[in-house]
Amino acid sequence: MAAADRRRSCSPPPTTSSPPDAAATASSAYFPPELIPHIASRLTSLQDFFALRAACRAYRALLPPTASNLACQAPLLLVPHLATESHALFHLPLRRLHRFRLPNRLTADVRSFPRYHSLGCRLTFYSRGHDDFRIVHILTGEQACLPKPPQSFDNILLSGDLVLTWNYMARTIQYCRLGDAVWRMASISEQYFLEDMVCVNGTLYALVTGSQDLAETYRLAIVNLSDSGDSVELALLGGNLDTRDVYLPEGSDLYLCLAVCRGELLLLNAVGFNPRVYDVFRWKAEEAKWMKISSLGGCTLFFEGLYFMGCLGPDHPGIRGDCLYFTERDGRWAEYSLVDKSFREFAAVDPNLVEPVIWVFPNMC
After folding, report:
1. Does the structure show a pLDDT above 50 at 15?
2. CA distance 92 to 85
C-alpha cells in the first residue's frame, strides 16, 4: 500500500493549459492590426471588403471606406435592376451584379424619372416633383442636400466643396458651395461658348469655342469665378486649336473633350466613328501647346459619352491599362486601346435596358 502511495505521489500534477496544437492555431489566426488596412487595400470586390470589415468591431474601426482602403476596387456600373425596381452595381472584371439599394427616398423616386450624375463614389440625384438636389455617398449613405439648380444642365463637376453645372455649348455656369442656400449663375463675359470643363489640382480649365459652328476653332482657358459678381472671366491659354493641331484634314469636324491623368491636363479627340478611333493629347504648359501621346503610362480613362468621369492608375486588377472606357446611351459600354487601336463593345447588362449606365468608382472617395 505504501509503495502504491509513493507511485501516485510521483505522478505529475494535472495541468489546465491548452494543447500545443490549439495554441498554434490561435496564434496563426491572429493578424497584427497594422496589416488589416494593407490586406483590405488589395481586395478587388466590395463584397470581400465589407465581409472583412464585418469580421469584428476592431476591423470595422480600422476599415472606414476611404480611398486608401479601397485602392484596388474595380470600377462599377450603376444599372437599373428591373426585378426590384431599384438599382444594382455591375462589377466589370467579374461580370457580376451586386445587389445595391440607394437610400429609401431615392429608391422611391425611380419611377419619377430621376437624373443621376457620377462624382467618383458619390452620385448626384434629383427628380421631377422635388425641390432639392442631393449628393449621396453610395458606400456610407451620407448625403449633402442643396437647393435644386434653377436651370437644367448636361454636366456637373465637384471641386472641393464647390459644385458646378453647365450645358454643352452654353455661356452660363451655375455654381454652389456645399451648405449654401442658393445657387449662383455667372455668364462668360467674352463671346465664347462652353464645350467642356475639368478641375486639375484645384484649377478650373475649360474648352471654349467662339462659335456654335462645330467646324470653328477652340481655345483652352482657365476659369475664374467671381465671388461677388455674376460673370465668368476666362484666362485664355495658347492659340487657337483647330484641325491642324490634332492632325485632321482641314474642314473636319472636331469632337473634343478634356480629361485629367495624374494631375496632367489631357485632350481627347474622336477621330473616327466607324470604326471608333481616338487620339489623346497632353497640355505642355511651358510651350502653351498640345502634344500627341500614345500612352497613358498604364493608366485608364473613363468617360460617359464624351464627358470625363475619372482615371485609374496603372496595373489596376481587371482593367486594361492605356485604354479608354466609355458608356453609351443605350446601356452599352466600350473599351478602346491606345496601344493596338482596338475597339471592343459590350452588350448591356439587361438587353431591355434603355437608359444609360453610370460609372461608380469606390476608390475615389
Report:
1. no
2. 22
CA 302, CA 75: separation in Å to the nearest integer? 9
**CB neighbourhood size of 303 (10 A):** 20
What pLDDT digit, counting tens, does each position of 260-314 carry? 999 999 999 988 778 889 999 999 999 998 999 999 999 999 998 888 999 999 8
- 8 A C-beta contact, residue 343 and residue 335: yes
CA 318-86-155 angle, to 5 degrees, is 70
Q: Is the pTM of this model over 0.90?
A: no
Instruction: Collapse the DSSP code of 53 into the 3-class scheme (helix H, G, I; strand E, B; otherwise coil) and give the result.
Output: helix
Strand order in the sheet with 307-312: 307-312, 300-304, 323-327, 333-337, 343-346
CA quadruple 39, 41, 47, 50: dihedral positive or negative?
positive
Rg (CA), the chain: 27
Contact between 259 and 308 under an 8 Å Cβ cutoff? The reply is: yes
Kindly provide the b/e burial profile for residues 259-277, where b requires at least 16 CB atoms within 10 angstroms of the residue's own CB: bbbeebbbbbbbeeeeebe
Amino acid at 116: Y
For the cut 80, the answer to whether the pLDDT of residue 83 exceeds it is no
Who contacts 227 (Cβ-Cβ below 8 Å, separation ≥6)?
none
Query: All 3 cell numbers of residue 158?
Result: 465637384
Average pLDDT over every residue of 90-110: 68
User: In the beta sheet, which residues pair with residue 135?
Assistant: 124, 144
- Cα angle value 83/85/89 (rounded, 5°): 80
3-state helix, strand and coil shares in percent for the chain, rounded to the nearest 5: 15, 40, 45
Average confidence (pLDDT) over 31-54: 91
Place of cell 449621396: 136
Looking at the DSSP bridge assignments, the partners of residue 109 are none
